[in-house]
Amino acid sequence: MPQDPHSEMQQAPATHETRWSLVALAASPEDSSVNAMDELLQIYLPVLKGMLNRWPQLDESTKEDLLQSFVQKRILEKQLLSKADASKGRFRNFLFRSFQNHIVDECRKSANTKRSPGKENLVSYDEIQGGIGESSELEKAYNVSWVRNLLEEGCRRLEVECKQKDRMDLWVVFCERLKKPFLEGAVPMPYGELVELLDIESPSQASNLLVTSKRLLRKYLEDVIRETVNDPTEIQAEVQFLKKCLK
Amino acid sequence: MKEFHATKKDSLTPLDSTRTLNEEANGLLTLLNEMDPGEPLWSGDDLTTILDHQLQAPLIVDLGSMQGVDSEHVRQLASARGLVLRSFEDLLGHSNPPLQLLVLTKEFAKRNLISPRSAIPREVARILYFSCIASAMVHSRKVISQLGTDELMEGFSWCLQRPWLKPELQEMFEQAGGLLVKGGAQ
Hints:
The complex is a heterodimer.
Chain A lengths: L4 H4 L10 H9 L5 H20 L7 H18 L13 H25 L9 H8 L2 H30 L3 H17 L6 H8 L4 H24 L8 H12 L1
Helix pairs in contact in A: 2-3, 3-7, 5-6, 7-8, 7-10, 8-10, 9-10
Chain B lengths: L20 H14 L9 H13 L2 H6 L6 H9 L8 H6 L5 H16 L7 H19 L8 H12 L6 H16 L4
Helix pairs in contact in B: 2-7, 6-7, 7-8, 7-9, 8-9
């Protein structure tokens, strides 16, 4: 194995458009806006879904209804993206406020529908009212979901790189010591077991692998975050902001 | 209308519904902190495991692999006068350790302490470094370091403040500190 895997794995994967350029493209009348919209929704819908997943009272069909109606009514019909303004802050905050308003509207509509028998009841008012709770909780759930998606994307890039470079030892140590414990609530695998599992010489070698994988994830995470800010110099400030949101 | 489903990335890690929102937020925060270059790289439990492993490592292999050191010479020192010194633990705990081996081990620790490519965490290398000095003082009443009394006392105190330090090393550092105060080693 190479002595310094970190230096060998410095090359970052291809970067994507920044979020704001993607938003502008998705909102434009160009043909390419369809693909941009698709990419944008694939990034943000899992975040919104992750937020809704926090409430077990909401069943799958209710969550899907809320997401589908948000895409259909707000994003497509009302051309929500054309109202997004980069000078007014983060796109994800804009999206959260819009989704929150959408939920409130759906609640009102469902309440009215309940009073008018025979009309289609898309989303149960009781389900949402009882399920969502405080708006500050909703915002924290959204932030948690957002950070989780950033970290998972960073982890995904790390895994791809480890596979490409035939360095699954790095990935295994990272998963067992960090990813599973902190993303999934699992107990970290003791170093002694990792030494046996990977057939390496010592716990300090396993520790070294962990240090290397941490450095790599930090780099990939910065790549992912870079795609969400206007200027690369904002990355560190964004990390601090995300930490604050989680507290 | 095209159907958009929030399942593509969502399926990477199934959500553990038994974790509360705060538990999940704390887990994510810890993982973000782990990426912070200012944070310690190893936990106390990790360092305990690594120190144990280093102390039990075959000293002939580690010392013999140092640049400029003859492994056969190390072997002779470790087995002279009927000694059976297989590990660093054997050497540090011996009642009459060969000083040349303690000096070599101190050099091994020092190289690992300053090398950015060392396989040993700095904290563990530092413990090993001061353990050699303390062992020579406690068992042979000799000072094998150019450091002054204050610097040695500071070093021993640093080692004693590590919560993951082994009890036998703790005792040795306390004795060495006492000898420093009394001037009981040369």
